[in-house]
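Example record for the data management plan.
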Amino acid sequence: MMSKEKKNNPHVKPEFVSARNGITLVALVITIIILLILAGITISLTIGQRGILKHAEEAGRNYQEAERKEDEELRELDNIIMGNSTLDEPKITMVDGVPVPNGFKHIEGTKEDGFVIKDVSVDEEGKPTSTNGNEFVWIPCTEDGKNGSIKYDRYAFSKNGWEFSQTKNEETEEITWSAYGMTYSFTEVMPRIELNSMKQYGGFYIGRYEVGIVDYDTTNIVTSNINNEKEWTGYHNGRAVVQKNVQVWNYITRDMAKKVAEGMYSNNDVVISRLCSSYAWDTILESIEINYLGYATNSTQGNYSGELKNTGQTTAVNHIYDMGGNVSEWTTENCIGENFSCTHRGGNFGNDRNNFPAGIRGCDSETGANNSIGFRCVFYIGK
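Corresponding structural encoding:
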């Protein structure tokens, strides 16, 4: 308490609080400046371009994306377990019970009367591939022929009054062909890939047309294999196709026809193309017989006009053209003999269909090639 003397003496100065116990004006200004700086830093860290809120927002989006991917992976795992994986494009698509390979589409017909597909494949740049436009027909069959199905097998076709007769030895599976007092024997072992395709898919595809040739040098066609080459064709360059109204690929040896057929889809990871075997040829005729009884022994739909035609110019049977005519066709079946070991099937434009129908077997040498023999391609699904 202030003394009475100090209180009444005007010369005595009042006491003030020491600066050490209070805040000076300078200190206050500095404090305010620091607080402003800290506030600015806090605001920047909170709502700036790389601020806390931005980080939080980004973290939220990342979390949602991770959650979405996890859901997709879980769904894909379920699909894999159920056999419906979508990670890779399916190699085949089932259409009305028929397997259609990737790169093909169904264009007409049914499984019962001839299911036709067309090659619509393109390369990485979207340009049509060399096989684009090829057409094939599905042949339903099984390896055992049970439950009313057609058995994938070799058959012998004969009839009364037919000048040529054929019989099959069920033990050796050799087929004999008798004509003009001569007898030839034919044999073939079914390739494993064909049997596997029958078991897994219940059928195979046959070329709708005889193999044709396009883009060849029309000024450089040799019609005689003067050097007796096994892999020989009279056409210079050219590309094999299974399409309508093109030049038939004749003037070709059996071994060369086999090579061309196998190379047609060599880059395809689903389709295995082959020269038609005796199993394929006979099974097709057996299936055609259901709707066209006697076709194998009297091929009225074939071209026997005495003139070679382009592919697909005659009447189709089950959507397949010219198995009974135009040109005979090389197969992989072998004829037992020293000079004529290669087999061709069906009639050709130079013969009478009554004696040379679709079921006939003919022989020629390994170097034989002429204008009346061509070939046909088949393919199996199994890679």
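Summary line stored alongside the record: The longest helix spans residues 52-81.
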